[in-house]
């Protein structure tokens, strides 16, 4: 696709897919946040996190989701804060958040860490106090110093509108802006002109009640032949007309717009998720060549908490791995096969390795851009 064609695809996408209701409010918050931290000469990172949804109806009951709990994004945000970055956290609504992630969902439910003391007050169980205190202090420091801005999204459309708005606001930061795209972004969607207004029905009740071109209900609807059917029955016994066949268009690839137009001087890091280890590095390299950005972090679904690979222009591929009891695959430390993924979570968080390595590349990116300016 030529540059003009991709610009046209971008304009067409944003003109036809409505922005989220909160876009203006989010942009105002992001602008104030960026201005405050730019004035303090602080680096700002946009971390995207969680999966985007693809609604199948405008009044959405059904949607397709992308896998992501938000662990990578929320954990990374904490390490960026520790490294002194101000963080804009663009995340899927209700996915994991920095700090609160330690005590949410089923792992370490907060209520299990509390008890009622002798005076009938709620207190933290003494054994858990130290580790909660550590998280609490970091959380409160981030809040007090306005270092963390939380912006939620739900759909792929919300995400793309928000990403474009925040990236454009970050453009004036030049090379000190960092975009760290860990969200799991839908590759396919239903364009608005094919999106059903109401819940998709499994029967033809709407046509029966409201025959073609009539706005008032039929006086004698023939709905006794209403049949239910099971969409999960893929056998030929189910006629095609009774199946729900979902026809999806590809989501335009906006990484190019991000690199060339929205935040052209910032450092851009994307993640590549695969399940087949044989293609991970190739796909990461291909993405880098196609979009000409600065780093692709490749990870496999099954081993993503144990190892990732950095693929960057002009550099050797670099695997980062958490310490593992019993060592790694073989003497060369080859990547794990999906079936070798260890049970449970590693003791060390891999983001503790990823963020310093990204920050180092960001230092180099800033130095290179400063040198280019001097010449
Ligand atoms: C990732 O690869 C993330 O690391 C995970 C994190 C989604 C695996 P969790 O939130 O999972 O810790 O549960 N994100 C990028 C996924 C993605 O959609 N990448 C696109 C692609 O692979 C490129 S932007 O094509």
What features would you describe in this structure?
With 375 residues, the protein is an alpha/beta fold. The protein has a single domain (3-102, 142-189, 252-374), classed as CoaB-like (Rossmann fold). It is 34% helix and 17% strand. It contains nine helices and 14 strands. The protein has an eight-stranded mixed beta sheet with strand order 7-4-1-8-11-12-13-14, with helices on both faces. Strands 2-3 form a two-stranded antiparallel ribbon. Strands 5-6 form a two-stranded antiparallel ribbon. Strand 2 and strand 3 (63-65) form a beta hairpin. The structure holds ligand 9Z3. Residues 68-72, 181-182, 184-185, 270-273, 299, 304 line the site of ligand 9Z3. Residues 208-235 are annotated as: Disordered. GO terms for molecular function: catalytic activity. One of its GO terms (biological process) is coenzyme A biosynthetic process.
Order of helices and strands: HHEEEHEEEHEHEEHEHEHEEEH
What is the CATH topology assignment? Rossmann fold
The CATH class label is: Alpha Beta
Oligomeric nature of the chains? single chain
Describe the main β-sheet briefly. 8 strands, mixed
Helix content: 25-40%
Rg over alpha carbons: 24 Å
Parts with pLDDT < 50 across at least 5 consecutive residues:
224-231
Q: Mean pLDDT, rounded to whole units?
A: 90
With strands numbered from the N-terminus, the spatial order across the biggest sheet is 7-4-1-8-11-12-13-14
State which percent range the strand residues make up: 15-25%
InterPro entries: CoaB-like_sf (IPR035929)
Region (Disordered): 208-235
GO molecular function: catalytic activity
């Amino acid at each position: 696709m030529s540059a003009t064609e991709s610009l046209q695809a971008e304009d067409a996408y944003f003109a036809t897919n409505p922005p989220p209701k909160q876009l203006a409010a989010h942009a105002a918050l992001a602008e104030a946040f960026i201005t405050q931290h730019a004035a303090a000469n602080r680096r700002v990172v946009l971390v995207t996190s969680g999966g985007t949804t693809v609604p199948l109806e405008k009044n959405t009951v059904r949607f397709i989701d992308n896998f992501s709990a938000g662990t990578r994004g929320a954990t990374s945000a904490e390490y960026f804060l520790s490294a002194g970055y101000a963080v804009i956290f663009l995340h899927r609504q209700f996915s994991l958040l920095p700090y609160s992630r330690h005590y949410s969902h089923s792992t370490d439910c907060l209520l299990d860490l509390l008890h009622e003391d002798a005076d009938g007050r709620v207190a933290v169980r003494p054994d858990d106090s130290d580790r909660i205190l550590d998280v609490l202090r970091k959380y409160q420091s981030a809040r007090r110093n306005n270092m963390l801005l939380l912006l939620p999204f739900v759909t792929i459309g919300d995400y793309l509108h928000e990403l474009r708005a925040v990236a454009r606001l970050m453009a004036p930061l030049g090379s000190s802006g960092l975009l760290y795209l860990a969200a799991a972004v839908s590759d396919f969607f239903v364009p608005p002109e094919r999106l059903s207004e109401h819940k998709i029905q499994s029967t033809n009740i709407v046509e029966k009640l409201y025959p073609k071109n009539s706005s008032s209900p039929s006086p004698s609807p023939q709905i006794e032949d209403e049949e239910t059917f099971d969409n999960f029955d893929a056998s030929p016994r189910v006629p095609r007309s009774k199946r729900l066949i979902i026809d999806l268009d590809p989501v335009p690839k906006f990484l190019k717009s991000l690199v060339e137009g929205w935040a052209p001087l910032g450092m851009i890091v994307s993640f590549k998720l695969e399940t087949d280890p044989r293609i991970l590095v190739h796909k990461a390299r291909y993405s880098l060549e196609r979009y000409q950005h600065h780093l692709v972090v490749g990870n496999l679904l099954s081993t993503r908490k144990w190892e990732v690979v950095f693929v960057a222009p002009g550099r050797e591929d670099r695997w980062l791995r958490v310490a593992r009891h019993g060592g790694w695959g073989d003497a060369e430390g080859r990547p794990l096969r999906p079936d070798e993924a260890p049970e449970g979570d590693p003791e060390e968080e891999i983001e503790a390795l990823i963020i310093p390595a990204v920050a180092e590349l960001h230092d180099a990116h800033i130095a290179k851009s400063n040198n280019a300016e001097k010449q």
